[in-house]
Amino acid sequence: MQGKADLPLYRGAAAPRTAKLIGQQPRAGRVGPPDQKRSSAVCRAWPRGGDGGDGLMTTAPDGSIIRREAKRPDLLAFEVKDRITKPDIEWMSALVDEAMTAHDTIDMLLIMSHYEGSDLGARFDAYATGVMARSVAHIRNYVVVGAPAFARAMITLSGAVLPVETRTFDLADEAQAWAYLDEAGPAKA
User: Fold this and answer.
1) Where are the beta strands (DSSP E) in 105-171?
2) Rounded to an integer, what distance in angstroms lies between the CA atom of residue 97 and that of residue 136?
3) What is the torsional sign of CA 54, 132, 32, 13?
4) Is 175 helix (H, G, I), strand (E, B) or coil?
5) Within 10 A of 28 (CB to CB), how many other CB atoms are there?
6) How far apart are the first and last CA of the chain?
7) What is the mean pLDDT of the segment spanning 147-172?
């Protein structure tokens, strides 16, 4: 693993959203939105996360969300393994925000293997809410595996009124969800 001094430095707006603020503890140095306060901070990129060498973390700061490997760059796949915290929802939102910017249209797979709810701060995070609102114009397929009954109902309803194709699968049918997205092909052909 690289030492702290070997990691590239970033300043201002050039700092990737997945950067860690230097000198802070992991929870305080969370990945988060590129707000005004952080844009002038000195940042260091996270060490490679073992997800294909793109340098991004594969696990959110508090560990409630994991980025799963996908076969194509315009497909984001996440697994929810615990109670979602504010730092973790900001981490996930930053990755979704970057993908929407890079690919314009994306597909998203959310696997809720051990969903335990979310902290109040995660539910009302302004950055995450903004990304979610903008995602309506950028997400083609939104597929959720293992959603609780209340979430399934909301996903089904939103698919009926929003220009996003939504599908839900039982946790045991995760392979079918991946097959559905494989069949859909790249978001931009």
Assistant:
1) 106-112, 139-145, 165-169
2) 12
3) positive
4) helix
5) 11
6) 38
7) 91
Q: What is the pTM of this model?
A: 0.70
- For the stretch 48-82, pLDDT in tens is 333 444 445 699 999 999 999 999 999 999 999 99
d(CA 170, CA 72): 23
Domains parsed from the chain with CATH numbers: 48-184 (3.30.750.24)
Total residues found in the chain within this entry: 189
Residue 127 Cα distances to 17, 25, 166, 174, 185, angstroms: 12, 21, 23, 29, 29
Most confident of 1-5, 54-58, 105-109, 119-123: 105-109
The letter for the amino acid at 77 is A
Q: Residue 109 in contact with residue 145, Cβ under 8 Å?
A: yes
As a whole number of angstroms, the longest Cα–Cα distance in the chain is 51
Coil, helix or strand at residue 108: strand
pLDDT mean across residues, the chain: 76
Full DSSP string of 30-67: ------HHHHTSEEEEPPP-SSSSS---SB-TTSSEEE
- Give the pairing of strands 139-145 and 106-112: parallel
